[in-house]
Write a structure and sequence with these properties.
This protein is mainly alpha-helical. The protein has a single domain, classed as Orthogonal Bundle (Globin-like). Helix content is 71%, strand content 0%. α1 packs across α3.
Protein backbone atom coordinates (compact mmCIF):
# COMPACT_ATOMS: atom_id res chain seq x y z
CA UNK A 1 0.00 0.00 0.00
CA UNK A 2 1.26 3.47 -0.90
CA UNK A 3 1.35 6.11 1.79
CA UNK A 4 -0.61 9.33 1.81
CA UNK A 5 1.00 12.75 1.47
CA UNK A 6 1.63 13.68 5.09
CA UNK A 7 4.61 16.02 5.20
CA UNK A 8 6.74 18.59 3.42
CA UNK A 9 9.18 15.78 2.70
CA UNK A 10 6.48 13.83 0.84
CA UNK A 11 5.70 16.91 -1.24
CA UNK A 12 9.38 17.56 -1.97
CA UNK A 13 9.90 14.00 -3.16
CA UNK A 14 6.82 14.14 -5.39
CA UNK A 15 7.80 17.49 -6.90
CA UNK A 16 11.37 16.32 -7.54
CA UNK A 17 10.17 13.19 -9.35
CA UNK A 18 7.56 15.20 -11.26
CA UNK A 19 9.97 17.89 -12.47
CA UNK A 20 12.52 15.27 -13.51
CA UNK A 21 9.87 13.89 -15.90
CA UNK A 22 8.56 17.31 -16.87
CA UNK A 23 11.95 18.70 -17.94
CA UNK A 24 12.47 15.91 -20.45
CA UNK A 25 8.94 15.78 -21.85
CA UNK A 26 8.75 16.39 -25.61
CA UNK A 27 5.72 18.68 -25.39
CA UNK A 28 6.42 20.83 -22.33
CA UNK A 29 10.06 20.27 -21.38
CA UNK A 30 11.27 23.20 -23.46
CA UNK A 31 9.19 25.62 -21.37
CA UNK A 32 11.30 24.82 -18.33
CA UNK A 33 14.68 24.36 -19.98
CA UNK A 34 14.75 26.69 -23.00
CA UNK A 35 11.90 29.22 -23.07
CA UNK A 36 12.46 30.12 -19.43
CA UNK A 37 15.63 28.75 -17.96
CA UNK A 38 14.64 28.03 -14.41
CA UNK A 39 16.97 27.75 -11.47
CA UNK A 40 15.43 24.56 -10.14
CA UNK A 41 17.22 24.93 -6.80
CA UNK A 42 15.10 28.06 -6.29
CA UNK A 43 11.97 27.08 -8.21
CA UNK A 44 11.23 23.70 -6.66
CA UNK A 45 11.10 24.96 -3.04
CA UNK A 46 8.58 27.61 -4.15
CA UNK A 47 6.45 24.94 -5.82
CA UNK A 48 6.68 22.88 -2.64
CA UNK A 49 5.65 25.93 -0.60
CA UNK A 50 2.55 26.26 -2.77
CA UNK A 51 1.50 22.65 -2.36
CA UNK A 52 2.35 22.66 1.35
CA UNK A 53 0.02 25.63 1.79
CA UNK A 54 -2.74 23.92 -0.19
CA UNK A 55 -2.44 20.40 1.19
CA UNK A 56 -1.05 20.79 4.69
CA UNK A 57 -2.72 24.09 5.55
CA UNK A 58 0.60 25.81 6.22
CA UNK A 59 0.41 29.34 4.74
CA UNK A 60 4.05 29.36 3.67
CA UNK A 61 3.45 30.30 0.00
CA UNK A 62 3.45 34.05 -0.58
CA UNK A 63 3.22 34.27 -4.37
CA UNK A 64 0.42 34.25 -6.92
CA UNK A 65 0.37 31.19 -9.13
CA UNK A 66 -1.98 32.76 -11.65
CA UNK A 67 0.17 35.87 -12.12
CA UNK A 68 3.26 33.69 -12.58
CA UNK A 69 1.61 31.76 -15.39
CA UNK A 70 0.19 34.89 -17.03
CA UNK A 71 3.70 36.38 -17.00
CA UNK A 72 5.12 33.14 -18.37
CA UNK A 73 2.55 33.19 -21.17
CA UNK A 74 3.95 36.54 -22.28
CA UNK A 75 7.34 34.86 -22.82
CA UNK A 76 6.08 31.63 -24.36
CA UNK A 77 2.48 31.11 -25.38
CA UNK A 78 0.98 28.51 -23.07
CA UNK A 79 -1.44 26.34 -25.00
CA UNK A 80 -4.24 24.21 -23.54
CA UNK A 81 -2.26 21.09 -24.43
CA UNK A 82 0.67 22.35 -22.33
CA UNK A 83 -1.57 22.53 -19.27
CA UNK A 84 -3.12 19.15 -20.09
CA UNK A 85 0.29 17.51 -20.44
CA UNK A 86 1.50 19.09 -17.16
CA UNK A 87 -1.55 17.66 -15.41
CA UNK A 88 -1.20 14.27 -17.07
CA UNK A 89 2.42 13.88 -15.93
CA UNK A 90 1.67 15.19 -12.45
CA UNK A 91 -1.32 12.88 -11.98
CA UNK A 92 0.68 9.84 -13.10
CA UNK A 93 3.43 10.62 -10.60
CA UNK A 94 0.94 11.34 -7.81
CA UNK A 95 -0.83 8.02 -8.39
CA UNK A 96 2.43 6.06 -8.63
CA UNK A 97 3.74 7.40 -5.32
CA UNK A 98 0.76 8.08 -3.05
CA UNK A 99 -2.79 7.23 -2.09
CA UNK A 100 -5.07 8.45 0.64
CA UNK A 101 -7.17 11.41 1.72
CA UNK A 102 -4.59 14.15 1.11
CA UNK A 103 -3.57 12.54 -2.16
CA UNK A 104 -7.21 12.54 -3.25
CA UNK A 105 -7.38 16.24 -2.35
CA UNK A 106 -4.30 16.94 -4.47
CA UNK A 107 -5.83 15.13 -7.44
CA UNK A 108 -9.05 17.09 -7.00
CA UNK A 109 -7.12 20.38 -6.84
CA UNK A 110 -5.12 19.59 -9.99
CA UNK A 111 -8.29 18.68 -11.89
CA UNK A 112 -9.97 21.89 -10.73
CA UNK A 113 -6.97 24.15 -11.23
CA UNK A 114 -6.08 23.23 -14.82
CA UNK A 115 -9.30 24.38 -16.55
CA UNK A 116 -9.27 27.58 -14.49
CA UNK A 117 -5.63 28.31 -15.39
CA UNK A 118 -6.29 27.68 -19.08
CA UNK A 119 -9.20 30.11 -18.97
CA UNK A 120 -7.34 32.83 -17.04
CA UNK A 121 -4.17 32.63 -19.15
CA UNK A 122 -6.16 32.77 -22.38
CA UNK A 123 -8.30 35.62 -21.02
CA UNK A 124 -5.19 37.56 -20.03
CA UNK A 125 -4.32 37.95 -23.71
CA UNK A 126 -7.39 40.15 -24.19
CA UNK A 127 -6.66 43.87 -24.00
CA UNK A 128 -9.66 44.28 -21.66
CA UNK A 129 -8.39 41.74 -19.16
CA UNK A 130 -8.54 42.84 -15.53
CA UNK A 131 -6.64 40.80 -12.97
Amino acid sequence: MKKDIESRSDIENLIEVFYTKLKTDELVGFIFTEAVILDFDKHLPVVCDFWEAVLLNNPIYKGNVMHKHIDLDKKVKLLPEHFDRWAEIFLVEINQLHEGKTTDELIKRVNTMIPFMKFKVESSRDSNFIQ
